[in-house]
Amino acid sequence: MKSVSEIAPFIALVSESEAHESETEKALSLISSKPVGNSLLKAINESSTSDKFITIISSSKANSSALGHLTDSQLTKYKVPSSTNPLRWATDKAAEISTHERLGGAGEGVSVNIYWNKDQAIKI
Q: What pLDDT, on the 0 to 100 scale, is given for residue 43?
C-alpha cells in the first residue's frame, strides 16, 4: 500500500498492510506529541521538496534501517557510470554527497527510505 501520512503529509508511506500503515501513523503521532519529536518533524517538513523526501517502508520482514538515495535531478547531475551497479553506485554517491562539507562531502540533501519493523522498535 502506498499513501501519504496523515500526521506528517510530507512523508510517504509504503506498508505491507493496513495494520502496518496504522502502526506507522501511531508511531508518527507519538513522535509529534513530544516537543523534540514535533521539532524534528517540523525541520523535516521545512527541508522536504517534491524532489527530496522521506519514505517510510513498514514491513514485518524488514530490518529497521535508513538508506539515502539520489533524487531524479541528482541522478541527472552525477550520471551513473556504465561500468558499475547503478543501485549500489547511487546509494554510495548519496552517502558521499550528503556528508557534511567539513567531512569531505558536499553537504547536499538527498531523499531517504526508512525501513521500519514495528517489532524491532524500542519505546523510549
A: 93
